[in-house]
Design a protein that fits this description.
Blueprint (H helix, E strand, L loop, with lengths): L10 E2 L15 E2 L3 E2 L6 E2 L7 E2 L19 E17 L10 E20 L2 E18 L4 E7 L2 E15 L2 E8 L2 E3 L18 E2 L2 E6 L5 E12 L14 E2 L3 E13 L2 E12 L4 E2 L2 E2 L6 E13 L2 E14 L1 E14 L1
């Protein structure tokens, strides 16, 4: 049985902080995971510290995202991210040389059964990333770390396969994803692959097909994060908690010949609530980013290969750079 597209995790660089004056002592803390949650913290004293969101799925899924059928899906996603600048809360580039590079590989296994609930097929999934993160900034953070990221599990998937919307084929899916703090983490390191927190990140994905060759897809997430009770030691805090956020992937593609699709893909992230340090909300801590670029899909006999690239803009409280994703999936 065919099972075309399910879930991946994003992998992008991550950071946060406001612009500091020369008289302000800067202590920047970063943590990135391409393919999974990581944490960037920044805290110039005496200003309020800001804790960043864990990395989420920004662009790791694209064309025909809502389409899936009962069966097994095995995917491997390779992700490269490089940012040559970090922006403050007003979107202005911080001075100095600030670079973040992350390379990751995420293994994804999903199963959709023939059991139906509310008209959809029930399933589950698991994702495990490996990452290599290199941070080199003028803000005080210079570290590189490699390791296993946090495990992502979903005990609940519902996939609908035979609906119509405005008389057009409409495939859609709801997934309740949970990220567990199983990855490599050391509070004495500036860069960690794990996050030491629990994230709940449910999403709704859909694909609508105006014609046999044209499809439009999107994936809409809402992110909630628990407290990290062992934050980076240099932060001087007992607990930190990233805020809540909305993030989404969007894509449109056209089948130019059988099995070959070309299109455009993008993503957006907007943090909705402030980060907290020791239970206190941090002003001007919300993050924002947009990404857009071209994509290619090659498919046949249950095997799909995706090549997607993104150019970021509008970053606030985080890095701004470029991303390239190679994804290979096999449906059984």
């Amino acid at each position: 049985m065919k099972n075309e597209a399910n879930k991946e995790i994003s992998t992008a660089g991550k950071t946060s902080r406001r612009k500091s004056s020369p008289a302000t002592a800067v202590k920047m803390v970063f943590a990135v995971l391409a393919g999974m949650g990581l944490l960037f913290c920044a805290g110039p004293a005496p200003a309020a510290d800001v804790v960043s969101l864990p990395t989420v799925n920004l662009g790791d899924t694209s064309f025909q995202d809502g389409i899936a059928f009962p069966g097994w899906l095995v995917e491997e996603t390779m992700n490269y991210y490089h940012a040559g600048q970090i922006n403050d809360h007003d979107g202005n580039k911080l001075s100095g040389s600030n670079k973040v590079t992350a390379v990751s590989a995420t293994t994804h296994i999903a199963y959709i059964s023939n059991l139906q609930l509310l008209g959809g097929f029930y399933g589950a999934e698991v994702l495990l990333p490996l990452a290599d993160v290199d941070v080199d900034t003028s803000l005080g953070a210079k570290d590189r770390n490699r390791g296993i990221g946090d495990l992502i599990v979903s005990p609940f998937i519902l996939q609908w396969t035979d609906n119509k919307l405005f008389s057009m084929p409409y495939f859609h899916r709801f997934v309740f994803d949970i990220t567990l703090p199983t990855g490599d983490y050391d509070r004495n390191r500036a860069v960690n692959i794990g996050t030491n927190l629990v994230s709940i990140d449910p999403y709704y994905a859909f694909t609508i097909m105006p014609t046999d060759k044209l499809e439009v897809s999107a994936r809409l997430h809402y992110l909630w994060n628990s407290e990290n009770d062992k934050p980076f030691a240099g932060l001087g805090a007992g607990t930190v908690q990233p805020g809540q956020a909305f993030h989404a992937n969007y894509a449109a593609s056209y089948e130019i010949v059988k099995g070959v699709r070309l299109g455009v893909n993008g993503y957006v992230l907007q943090q909705l609530t402030a980060d907290k340090v020791d239970g206190r909300s941090q002003a001007n801590s919300e993050e924002r980013i947009f990404g857009i670029g071209p994509g290619l899909q090659l498919a046949g006999d249950g095997l799909s290969l995706y090549l997607n690239s993104y150019f970021e803009t509008g970053a606030e409280n985080r890095p701004e750079g470029i991303k390239a994703i190679f994804r290979l999936s096999k449906a059984f």
